[in-house]
């Protein structure tokens, strides 16, 4: 059974749910950036705490945590709220991305309107909706909102996110 870090799963879910759509993207190495805001500010405080805790870990433990994520195909930068992942040829052409499932999300609706894709999704921590615009298959930008259940505390959060294709090869992961 995979051990998940709830905060990481949330970040992946918001960005992954936004990036997942039926439009074709380039396969290879992608970088995603997420900027989160919550109504209460508690989510931002949790991010600050996670950053501080990660910085305090002994190097061996920090490497172990990073290695666990890398084995799942994700290189996460908690400081900059970004992550990198590899999109396979099959994922790129089908619009079915493995990291959406690994983020604990299921898309419930996907609707294309012109250049925009509108989505609704359900994740382990809550549910939400968002929209994104794909720019020439190698960049996207979007925003989403989500109602979260964080250990019995219901929180409304929003995210702005963007992604860009970096390289055809995923060796950098």
Account of the 3D structure:
The radius of gyration is 15 Å and the shape is globular. By secondary structure, the protein is an alpha+beta fold. The model is unreliable at 1-7 (pLDDT under 50). It has helices at residues 6-19, 42-56, 59-71, 89-94, 98-102, and strands at 28-38, 74-77, 82-87, 105-113, 116-123, 126-135, 139-150, 153-167. It has an 8-stranded antiparallel beta sheet with strand order 2-3-1-8-7-6-5-4. The chain contains 5 helices and 8 strands. 31% of the residues lie in helices and 43% in strands. It has one domain. It starts with 5 loop residues before the first helix and ends in a 6-residue tail after the last strand.
Itemize the secondary structure elements and their pairings.
Layout: H1 6-19, E1 28-38, H2 42-56, H3 59-71, E2 74-77, E3 82-87, H4 89-94, H5 98-102, E4 105-113, E5 116-123, E6 126-135, E7 139-150, E8 153-167
Antiparallel strand pairs: 1-3, 1-8, 2-3, 4-5, 5-6, 6-7, 7-8
């Amino acid at each position: 059974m995979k051990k998940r870090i709830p905060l990481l799963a949330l970040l992946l879910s918001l960005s992954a749910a936004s990036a997942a759509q039926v439009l074709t993207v380039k396969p290879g190495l992608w970088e995603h950036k997420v900027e989160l805001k919550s109504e209460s500010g508690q989510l931002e405080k949790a991010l600050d705490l996670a950053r501080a805790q990660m910085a305090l870990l002994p190097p061996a433990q920090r490497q172990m945590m990073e290695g666990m994520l890398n084995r799942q195909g994700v290189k996460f930068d908690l400081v900059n709220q970004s992550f990198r992942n590899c999109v396979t040829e099959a994922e790129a052409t089908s619009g079915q991305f493995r990291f959406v499932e690994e983020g604990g999300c299921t898309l419930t609706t996907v609707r294309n309107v012109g250049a925009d894709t509108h989505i609704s999704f359900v994740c382990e921590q809550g549910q939400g909706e968002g929209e994104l615009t794909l720019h020439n298959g190698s960049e996207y930008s979007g925003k989403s909102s989500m109602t979260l259940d964080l250990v019995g505390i219901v929180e409304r959060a929003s995210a702005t996110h963007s992604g860009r294709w970096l390289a055809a090869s995923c060796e950098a992961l």
